[in-house]
C-alpha cells in the first residue's frame, strides 16, 4: 500500500499560529502583554459618535486584541528574530553536524579546512533583516541555536562615559524624579508578596529572561532602585570606529542608527548597556551618592521603602504647570506588573524603558507621563473610604456592562487600568494567579496625568478621580457621555465596534477622509482618487454630533477606527458576521464596495488584519490532531475553534474580494484584459500592438497593486490555504468513510458568488447594469492576476513543485477557475502565464515530464497545460514525439553499425549463407526508417498491407514514402511526398461510397456511419494513418467535428455547443426546444417529438427509444435475405417529449449521436490513433489545438502569406513579384488552396499561422520560347517562378500550373 504524503508540517505550524487570539504559554509572553497593557494608549468611542454605534460598542478584555499592543508585540518579535539571525550568521550553533544553510556552524562544516570569512556586523544585520522579513521566518532558524553568552557586537562597540550634568533648578529634578519613580516603585516586600501569591507557576516570573529561560538569581540585572541614583548624571554614549564601504548602498543603509537600534533595543542589548552603566556607577559611587543626597533628599536612600507621606511631600513641591493636583499614594500591593520582562519594556510605542526591574537605564520623565495601570491582581476596586465617599465615578474594571460614570465633583484619583481575566476559557493571563481576597480590600491611589497623545485636550487643572464601587439603583445616573474627562478615558478599558456593515464602513471612511487622517500608503496613494460607483439604494448616512463640548480630536477617531478595523477584520467570526445576512454572504458587488472603501483609507491595516484572520484556515480537524503535536500546534488548537467548511468558504471569499478591491478601478473590460495580458508576460509596460494602447500611468498604477507587500502576503496565505483545506476535507471524510463532496470545496462559495444568476448571496446594494457587467469581468480577471503574481514571485525555476505552498495553491486556484470558465465567462487566453514559457526548456523538460509521477502533494507544471499558449503546447508535444523518434532512430543505427562490423568482408563470419540469414533476422531491428512503397492506383490497399502487424518500434521511426515509382515518378521524400501520400490515402478512406463515413453536405464534416458494415480493423488502420501523420508533424485534408477530438482526449460530449459545428441545424433545433416558453403552446403540441433516436443507414431508417439499458446499436442488413433487418425492431409507440423531460431528451440525444450509435467504430479508430502517440502527451492538448494539429488552419490570408514570404533571386519591389501578389490576392478560396498545395503539398495552414509556414519564391530564369510553367519544391516550400514579360502571361502560366499539378519529378 502506498503511503500518502501529508502537507508540510512547517506550512501548518507557521500559518496556523501566532494569531491575535493565540494564548501565550511562556511567562515572558505574559510579562510582555502585562507591560504593554500598562503603557499602550487605549482607543475609546469618541463622545461625538452617533447614537447608532452604541449597540455595537464592546470593551476589549483580551490584550492581544488591542491594536497598539499587537503592533508593539510584532515589533518586539521582529527585533528578537533579527537578533537570533545575527547570532546564527556570525556565531552559529556550535553543532558539528548542523544542516541549516545560514548557520555559521553549517558553513564551517561544508568548507572543511578551507579558510572562511565571518560576516561583519553590518553584513550580518543586512542578511538578518532580510531573513526575518520573509514569510514564516522561524523556519530558517537553526534548531540548535544556543543562548548567546556575549552581548551583541553592535552594543560592544558602544562606549559610555559620565559627564557633569548641566545646571538646572533642584525643583525641576525633584519633580521629574518624583513623577518617574513614584507610581512604579516596587519594594522588596512587594516582590516577595508577589512570589507568595503565585502558587500555580513553577517559578517566579521575575527569574525568567525574555525568551522564557530560567535565569540564575545571581545574574539578574541591576534593580531600578540602584540605578535611580544615576538620575542626576548625564551619560555620554559614543560609538567606536567601524569600517564601512561608503560606495555600498547596503552598507550605508543598514549601517545607520535606525537599523542598529534593532540590536541595541533588544533585551540582551539593554541588559549589556545596563551593565556598562552599572560599572560606570561603581566607579563614581561616592560622588553620585553625594549628588543624590543633595538633590533628592529622602529619595537618596534607595534601600529604604518610601512612605506615602514622603511621596506627598515631593508631589507638593512640584510646580503646578507640570503636575496634577495632589493625590494620596498608599503602599502598592503586589501585582503582575512585577513580572514585566524586557519585552514589555521595549515593544510598545509609549513603553517607558526606565520602569522595568530588568531594564536599568536611568531616564527622567516629566510630570505629563502616563499614569500607572493596574494589572490583573488589581482587577476589583477597593471599598470606598471615608475621604472619597462623594466620588461617583466607576471603576473601569467594574464597568462590564457599559455603565457610564458621571463627572466627579471633587478632585480624586482614578483607578489604575486592570488587566482583564477570562476565567471561562483559556486566555492570555491563564498563568497569572487569581487575586488574594485579602489584597482586594487594599486601596491604592495613583498619580494621574493627562493624555500625552491629545495635546489639544490638556489643561493645567485636570481632575484627579478616586475609584468607587459599582453604584446602586439609588445613586444618581449618568448625565452625558460627553462629560467623561480624558484622564478617566485614558485608564479605562479599550473599546471597539463588534461588527461592521455598509453604513458603518461608509461612516468611518467618510470621517477619516474628512479629518485627513487616512493612511497615506505609497502603494495605493494614486488610487485615492478612484471614483467608486455609487449605489442606487444608499442608506441614511451616519453623522457625528456637532456640539462644542462633544467635539473630539482627529486622533481619537483615527485610533478608534484602527481599533475597530483590527478587532473585526482579524477575527474570522467577526468578519463573517459583518458581511453576512441571514446566513448568506453579501453579494460580490456589495462586498467589493465595502472592502474597496476600507482599503482606500487603511490599506495596511486591512490587509494585515485579514492576513491574521486567514491563519484560522490552517487549523486541522479534530480527527487529525495528535497528542504528540508540537507546542506551536497546541497553541493553535487550543486558541481557536476550527472553522467549518462553510465558514472557511465565507472567509476565503471575503479575503479574495479584498485583493480585488486593492486594484484600481479600470473603466472598461477591454482595458482590463489588456492590462492583464501585460502581467501574464511578466512585464509592467509593453510595446505590443494589443497592449500599447494602454497609457503608461495606468499600467504603472495597475502594477503597483501587485507589488504591495502586505497584499501580496495575504495572497500567498490564501492560496496556500486552498490545497491544505482540501486535504483536511479529504482526510476528515476518509475517517468518516464518506466520499469527498464538491460542496465542501473552499472555493465553491466564491465561484457561486461570482455567478450573477446564483441565488446564494444576499443582495444588499443595487448598482447600474453597466457596473454589474464590469464587475463580472473585474473579479475573476484580477484574481487570476493575483494568482499569476504569486506564481511569478514563488517560482524557483524548476518544473516540479510542492502543492502545499503558495505556488501550488495559486495553480490550484487557476485550475478551479479554468474548470468553471464557462460559468465565469472567461476565455482560454486569460489563464496564460507566458512568462514561464520563455524560461522553460522546450526540448528536455517535456521529455522528463513523461517519466515524472505526479502525486497528491508533488506536481509538475505541465500538469496545468492551460497556463501555456497553444504555440508553446504544440512545441512541447512535438518535442516529445521527436525525442521518441530520435531514440528509435539511434537504436536502429547503433544496431546496424554493429551488424555491419560482423557481416562486412574480413569480419568474423565468413560463411555467405550465415551472413544472409543474420541480415534477414536483423533487417527489422536495423532499419532506420519506416519505408512505405505506395502506388498511385492502390494507395489505401498498399498502405494497409504494409502497416498491418508492424511492430511498435518500426512505426515510431522516421517515415519515408516512395510514391508512384512503379510508373516512373522520381521524388526525394523530405516531407512533400509524405504530404501527398496522406492526402490521397485519407481522401479515399473517407469516401462515403465505401460506407464507413458520412459527409455532411452543408458543413462538409466527416462522421462515422452508424451501423456500418465496414470491418473494425479498417477503422483502426484509418486511426493509425492519422496517428502517423500527427506523429511526423503533417496535417491532413480532413474536417472532423470538435466532438471527435473531445472524445479522443477523453473529455465528455454533453453540451449543445459541443456539436454545434458538426450539426448546426440539429443544435439550433434542440436549443429552440430548450428555450421554448409554454405560454405559446405545449412542447408536445408544437414540436411533436418522440423520445427516440433515428438515423438513416443504407436506405433504411433505424429508430431506437433512448434508454440507459441495452445501449448497443444494430448493424445494417448485409443482404436482402437477412431475416431480421435493423428497422424491424423499431418501436411502434414511444413517449412524447414534454416540458418535464426535454432537458433529459437533449442530453440523451447528444449521447446517442456521439457515443451509442458509433461506439464500435470509434473504439477501433481510437486504438489506431493512440498507436504512435503517448496518452500523457495528448493531455497537453485541448480539443481546438488537437484539431488544428490534425487539420491545420483552413482560412488562408494572402496578406499574412505575403508578410512572411521570402525571396531568392527576386526583390520585393520587382514588377513580377508585384504582379504575382496582385493576381493571387484576387483568387477565390479554391484557387488559394490549390496554390498552397502546389507549393507545400498541403492546402492547410499549419498550427500557429503563416509564421510557421515556409513559403519561398525563387527566380527560375526568364520566359523562353516554349513558355516555361512555374514549378515547386514541395519538400522545401519553394515556388520556382520564371520572369514573365507582362502580368497577363503570368496569370495564364500560373493558372495552368495550378490546374494540372500532379506527380513528382526532379527539376
How are the secondary structure elements laid out?
Layout: H1 9-16, H2 27-39, E1 57-59, H3 67-90, H4 104-111, H5 121-132, H6 153-156, E2 158-163, H7 170-181, H8 188-196, H9 224-227, E3 234-239, H10 249-254, H11 257-264, H12 267-283, H13 285-296, H14 308-317, H15 342-346, H16 486-489, E4 495-497, H17 502-515, H18 554-569, H19 572-578, E5 580-581, E6 584-585, H20 588-601, H21 603-614, H22 631-639, H23 645-662, H24 669-680, H25 696-705, H26 709-735, H27 748-754, H28 769-794, E7 800-802, H29 806-819, H30 821-824, H31 834-837, H32 844-851, E8 858-860, H33 870-903, H34 912-921, H35 923-926, E9 930-934, H36 939-947, H37 952-955, E10 959-963, H38 976-989, E11 997-999, E12 1006-1008, H39 1016-1031, H40 1042-1048, H41 1064-1075, H42 1083-1086, E13 1092-1097, E14 1100-1105, H43 1142-1154, H44 1159-1169, H45 1175-1178, H46 1183-1191, H47 1198-1204, E15 1206-1208, H48 1215-1225, H49 1229-1240, E16 1256-1262, E17 1271-1273, E18 1278-1283, H50 1287-1299
Parallel strand pairs: 9-10, 15-16, 16-18
Antiparallel strand pairs: 1-4, 2-3, 5-6, 7-8, 11-12, 13-14, 17-18
Morphology: globular
In order across it, which strands form the biggest sheet?
15-16-18-17
Biggest sheet layout: 4 strands, mixed
**If you average the pLDDT, what whole number results?**
74
Beta content comes to 5-15%
Query: How many strands appear in the DSSP assignment?
Result: 18
Figure out the total of helices: 50
Structural Rg: 42 Å
Q: Quote the distance from N terminus to C terminus.
A: 66 Å
Oligomerization status of the protein chains: single chain
| Unreliable sequence segments | 1-6, 9-25, 168-231, 296-483, 521-529, 627-639
Structural class: mainly alpha
State the helical fraction. Answer: 40-55%
Amino acid at each position: 500500500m502506498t503511503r500518502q504524503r501529508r502537507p508540510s508540517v512547517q506550512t501548518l505550524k507557521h500559518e496556523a499560529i501566532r494569531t491575535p487570539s493565540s494564548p501565550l504559554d511562556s511567562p515572558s509572553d505574559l510579562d510582555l502583554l502585562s507591560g504593554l497593557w500598562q503603557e499602550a494608549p487605549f482607543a475609546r468611542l469618541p463622545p461625538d459618535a452617533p447614537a447608532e454605534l452604541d449597540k455595537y460598542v464592546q470593551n476589549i478584555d483580551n490584550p492581544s486584541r488591542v491594536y497598539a499592543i499587537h503592533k508593539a508585540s510584532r515589533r518586539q518579535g521582529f527585533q528578537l528574530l533579527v537578533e537570533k539571525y545575527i547570532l546564527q550568521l556570525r556565531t552559529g550553533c556550535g553543532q558539528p553536524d548542523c544542516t541549516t544553510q545560514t548557520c555559521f556552524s553549517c558553513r564551517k562544516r561544508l568548507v572543511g579546512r578551507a579558510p572562511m570569512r565571518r560576516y561583519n556586523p553590518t553584513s550580518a544585520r543586512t542578511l538578518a533583516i532580510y531573513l526575518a522579513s520573509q514569510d514564516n521566518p522561524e523556519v530558517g532558524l537553526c534548531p540548535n541555536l544556543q543562548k548567546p553568552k556575549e552581548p551583541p557586537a553592535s552594543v560592544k562597540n558602544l562606549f559610555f562615559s559620565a559627564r557633569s550634568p548641566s545646571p538646572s533648578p533642584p525643583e525641576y529634578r525633584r519633580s521629574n524624579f518624583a513623577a518617574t519613580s513614584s507610581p512604579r516603585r516596587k519594594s522588596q516586600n512587594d516582590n516577595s508578596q508577589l512570589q507568595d501569591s503565585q502558587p500555580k507557576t513553577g517559578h517566579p516570573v521575575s527569574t525568567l529572561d525574555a525568551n522564557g529561560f530560567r535565569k540564575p538569581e545571581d545574574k539578574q540585572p541591576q534593580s531600578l532602585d540602584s540605578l535611580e541614583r544615576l538620575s542626576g548624571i548625564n551619560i555620554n554614549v559614543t560609538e567606536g570606529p567601524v569600517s564601512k564601504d561608503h560606495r555600498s548602498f547596503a552598507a550605508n543603509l543598514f549601517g545607520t542608527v535606525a537599523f542598529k537600534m534593532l540590536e541595541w533595543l533588544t533585551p540582551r542589548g539593554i541588559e549589556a548597556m545596563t551593565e556598562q552603566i552599572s560599572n560606570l556607577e561603581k566607579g563614581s559611587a561616592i560622588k553620585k551618592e553625594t549628588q543624590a543626597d543633595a538633590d533628592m533628599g529622602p529619595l537618596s536612600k534607595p534601600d529604604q521603602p518610601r512612605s506615602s507621606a514622603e511621596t506627598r511631600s515631593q508631589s507638593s513641591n512640584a510646580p503646578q504647570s507640570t503636575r496634577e493636583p495632589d493625590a494620596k499614594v498608599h503602599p502598592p500591593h503586589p501585582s503582575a506588573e512585577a513580572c514585566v520582562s524586557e519585552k514589555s519594556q521595549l515593544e510598545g510605542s509609549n513603553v517607558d524603558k526606565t520602569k522595568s526591574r530588568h531594564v536599568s537605564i536611568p531616564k527622567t520623565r516629566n510630570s505629563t507621563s502616563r499614569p500607572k495601570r493596574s494589572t490583573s491582581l488589581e482587577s476589583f476596586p477597593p471599598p470606598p473610604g471615608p475621604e472619597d465617599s462623594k466620588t461617583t465615578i466607576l471603576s473601569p474594571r467594574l464597568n462590564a456592562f457599559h455603565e457610564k460614570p458621571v463627572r466627579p465633583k471633587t478632585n480624586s484619583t482614578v483607578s489604575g487600568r486592570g488587566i482583564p481575566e477570562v476565567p471561562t476559557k483559556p486566555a492570555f493571563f491563564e498563568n497569572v494567579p487569581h487575586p488574594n481576597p485579602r489584597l482586594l480590600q487594599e486601596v491604592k491611589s495613583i498619580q494621574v496625568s493627562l493624555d500625552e497623545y491629545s495635546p489639544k485636550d490638556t489643561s493645567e487643572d485636570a481632575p484627579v478621580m478616586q475609584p468607587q464601587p459599582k453604584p446602586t439603583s439609588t445613586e444618581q445616573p449618568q448625565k452625558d457621555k460627553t462629560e467623561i474627562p480624558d484622564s478617566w478615558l485614558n485608564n479605562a478599558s479599550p473599546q471597539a465596534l463588534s461588527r461592521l456593515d455598509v453604513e458603518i464602513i461608509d461612516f468611518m471612511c467618510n470621517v477619516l477622509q474628512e479629518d485627513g487622517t487616512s493612511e497615506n500608503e505609497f502603494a495605493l496613494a494614486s488610487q485615492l482618487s478612484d471614483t467608486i460607483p455609487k449605489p442606487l439604494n444608499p442608506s441614511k448616512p451616519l453623522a457625528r454630533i456637532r456640539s462644542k463640548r462633544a467635539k473630539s480630536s482627529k486622533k481619537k477617531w483615527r485610533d478608534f477606527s484602527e481599533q475597530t478595523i483590527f478587532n473585526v477584520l482579524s477575527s474570522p467570526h467577526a468578519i463573517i458576521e459583518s458581511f453576512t445576512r441571514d446566513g448568506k454572504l453579501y453579494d460580490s458587488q456589495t462586498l467589493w464596495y465595502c472592502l474597496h472603501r476600507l482599503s482606500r483609507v487603511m490599506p495596511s491595516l486591512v490587509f494585515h488584519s485579514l492576513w491574521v484572520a486567514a491563519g484560522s484556515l490552517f487549523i486541522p480537524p479534530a480527527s487529525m490532531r495528535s497528542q504528540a503535536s508540537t507546542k506551536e500546534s497546541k497553541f493553535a488548537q487550543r486558541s481557536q475553534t476550527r472553522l467549518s467548511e462553510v465558514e472557511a468558504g465565507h472567509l476565503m471569499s471575503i479575503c479574495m474580494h479584498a485583493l480585488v478591491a486593492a486594484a484600481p478601478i479600470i473603466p472598461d473590460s477591454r482595458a482590463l484584459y489588456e492590462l492583464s495580458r501585460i502581467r501574464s508576460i511578466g512585464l509592467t509596460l509593453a510595446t505590443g500592438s494589443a497592449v500599447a494602447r494602454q497609457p503608461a500611468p495606468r499600467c504603472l498604477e495597475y502594477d503597483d497593486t501587485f507589488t504591495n507587500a502586505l497584499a501580496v502576503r495575504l495572497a500567498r496565505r490564501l492560496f496556500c490555504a486552498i490545497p491544505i483545506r482540501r486535504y483536511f476535507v479529504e482526510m476528515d471524510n476518509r475517517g468518516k468513510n464518506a466520499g469527498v463532496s464538491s460542496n465542501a470545496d473552499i472555493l465553491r462559495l466564491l465561484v457561486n458568488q461570482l455567478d450573477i444568476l446564483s441565488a446564494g448571496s444576499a443582495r444588499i446594494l443595487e448598482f447600474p447594469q453597466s457596473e454589474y457587467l464590469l464587475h463580472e469581468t473585474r473579479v475573476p480577471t484580477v484574481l487570476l492576476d493575483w494568482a499569476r503574481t504569486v506564481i511569478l514571485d514563488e517560482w524557483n525555476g524548476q518544473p516540479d513543485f510542492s502543492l502545499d505552498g503558495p505556488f501550488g495553491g495559486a495553480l490550484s486556484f487557476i485550475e478551479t477557475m479554468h474548470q468553471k470558465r464557462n460559468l465565469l465567462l472567461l476565455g482560454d487566453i486569460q489563464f496564460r502565464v507566458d512568462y514561464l514559457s520563455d524560461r522553460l526548456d522546450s526540448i528536455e523538460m517535456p521529455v522528463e515530464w513523461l517519466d515524472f509521477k505526479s502525486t497528491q502533494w508533488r506536481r509538475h507544471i505541465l500538469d496545468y497545460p492551460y497556463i501555456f499558449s497553444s504555440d508553446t503546447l504544440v512545441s512541447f508535444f512535438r518535442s516529445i514525439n521527436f525525442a521518441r523518434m530520435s531514440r528509435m532512430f539511434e537504436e536502429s543505427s547503433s544496431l546496424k553499425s554493429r551488424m555491419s562490423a560482423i557481416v562486412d568482408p574480413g569480419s568474423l563470419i565468413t560463411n555467405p549463407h550465415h551472413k544472409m540469414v543474420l541480415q534477414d533476422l536483423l533487417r527489422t531491428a536495423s532499419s532506420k526508417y519506416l519505408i512505405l512503397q505506395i502506388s498511385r492506383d492502390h494507395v489505401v490497399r498498399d498502405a494497409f498491407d504494409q502497416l498491418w502487424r508492424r511492430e511498435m518500434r518500426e512505426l515510431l521511426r522516421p517515415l519515408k514514402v516512395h510514391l508512384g515509382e512503379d510508373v516512373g515518378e522520381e521524388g526525394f521524400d523530405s516531407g512533400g511526398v509524405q504530404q501527398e501520400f496522406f492526402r490521397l490515402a485519407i481522401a479515399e478512406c473517407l469516401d462515403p461510397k465505401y460506407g464507413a463515413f458520412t459527409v455532411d453536405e452543408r458543413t462538409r464534416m466527416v462522421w462515422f456511419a452508424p451501423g456500418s458494415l465496414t470491418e473494425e480493423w479498417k477503422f483502426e488502420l484509418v486511426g493509425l494513418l492519422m496517428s502517423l501523420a500527427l506523429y511526423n508533424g503533417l496535417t491532413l485534408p480532413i474536417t472532423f467535428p470538435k466532438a471527435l477530438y473531445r472524445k479522443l482526449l477523453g473529455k465528455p460530449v454533453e453540451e449543445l455547443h459541443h456539436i454545434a459545428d458538426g450539426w448546426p441545424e440539429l443544435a439550433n433545433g434542440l436549443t429552440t426546444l430548450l428555450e421554448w416558453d409554454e405560454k405559446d403552446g405545449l412542447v408536445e403540441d408544437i414540436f411533436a417529438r418522440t423520445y427516440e433516436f433515428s438515423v438513416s443507414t443504407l436506405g433504411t431508417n433505424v429508430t431506437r427509444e433512448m434508454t440507459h439499458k441495452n445501449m448497443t446499436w444494430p448493424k445494417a442488413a448485409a443482404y436482402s435475405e437477412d431475416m431480421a433487418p435493423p428497422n424491424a425492431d423499431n418501436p411502434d409507440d414511444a413517449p412524447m417529449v414534454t416540458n418535464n423531460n426535454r432537458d433529459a431528451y437533449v442530453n440523451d440525444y447528444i449521447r446517442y449521436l456521439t457515443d451509442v450509435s458509433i461506439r464500435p467504430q470509434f473504439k477501433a479508430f481510437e486504438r489506431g490513433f493512440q498507436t504512435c502517440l503517448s496518452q500523457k502527451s495528448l493531455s497537453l492538448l485541448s480539443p481546438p489545438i488537437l484539431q488544428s494539429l490534425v487539420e491545420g488552419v483552413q482560412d488562408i490570408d494572402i496578406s499574412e502569406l505575403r508578410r512572411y514570404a521570402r525571396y531568392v533571386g527576386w526583390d520585393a519591389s520587382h514588377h513580377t513579384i508585384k504582379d504575382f501578389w496582385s493576381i493571387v490576392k484576387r483568387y477565390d478560396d479554391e484557387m488559394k488552396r490549390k496554390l498552397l498545395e502546389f507549393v507545400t503539398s498541403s492546402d492547410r495552414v499549419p498550427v500557429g499561422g503563416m509564421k510557421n509556414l515556409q513559403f519561398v519564391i525563387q527566380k527560375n530564369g526568364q520566359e523562353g520560347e516554349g513558355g516555361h510553367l512555374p514549378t515547386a519544391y514541395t519538400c522545401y516550400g519553394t515556388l520556382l517562378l520564371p520572369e514573365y514579360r507582362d502580368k497577363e502571361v503570368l496569370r495564364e502560366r500560373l493558372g495552368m500550373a495550378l490546374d494540372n499539378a500532379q506527380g513528382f519529378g526532379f527539376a
